[in-house]
Amino acid sequence: MLVGRAQTGDAVRWVCAHEDGMRPIEDPFAAFAEGREPVIIDERVEGRLLAPCEPVVLVGIAQNGPAHPSPVQAWLKSPRTVVASGETVSLRSDAGAVVAEGEIAVVIGRPTEGLTAANAHEYVLGVTAVNDLSSPERVVMDPRNFESKSGAGYTPLGPWIDTEAGLDSIPLVVAVDAETVATTDARELPVSIRDCLAYVAGWTPLDAGDVVMTGAPHSQAPVVPGRTASVAVGRVVLTTPFI
């Protein structure tokens, strides 16, 4: 199931993608806690898709690129940088070049106490697409990634959470202005998604709605104002125009 959040009139509702449009559903995290898919509760609705969740903790995975000499590590990014698919992002002009980093984002479904690499799928609601926008020139003076990744809107996320996607093999495609610049897969990550989740959960508690961005395996592209980037993670396609 593809689940997300939509602004419908004055209300924000959980919805799923249906053949006739968006259908309201019950809280998918409550359903996940009971070990089942959320139930469709109403007929088709009109609305604007929002970011598919509101993470309290937003984790990035570092050193998960090809042949990186350091072991996998994690860092924190402000959840206030999260924006919806289709929302225009203003690129900072004071931080050097900007790079779109297409990544597979994992949405946690329940508290992660007891999570291991072997059982990680039991704690995951689903996966979505994320564009971990970065200003890499700032890393020279800011190795902790605070300046390079903290711009307003620098974490486009969504628009859907795919609750049926696995963790071991997920296609990832990045395009700029409809021209494909990267095609890869979760299998190309030197450290698997399962191992990344186990590493993060081993050091800090995560809970329903938190997000782990799993790294950019050959999936980066420079962007400038006037361009539009897209990140496709399986069935989920995220688009972000830049000014």
From TrEMBL:
Offer an example of a GO molecular function term for this protein: acetylpyruvate hydrolase activity
Could you confirm whether the keyword Metal-binding appears in this record? yes
Which organism was this protein described from? Microbacterium esteraromaticum
Q: What is this protein called?
A: Fumarylacetoacetate hydrolase family protein
Q: Provide the alphabetized UniProt keywords.
A: Hydrolase, Metal-binding
Q: Name the PANTHER family for this protein.
A: ACYLPYRUVASE, ACYLPYRUVASE FAHD1, MITOCHONDRIAL
Q: Which residues form the Fumarylacetoacetase-like C-terminal domain?
A: 66-231
Pfam families given for it?
A: FAA_hydrolase
| Claim: Disulfide bond is one of the keywords in the record | no
**Signal peptide region:** none
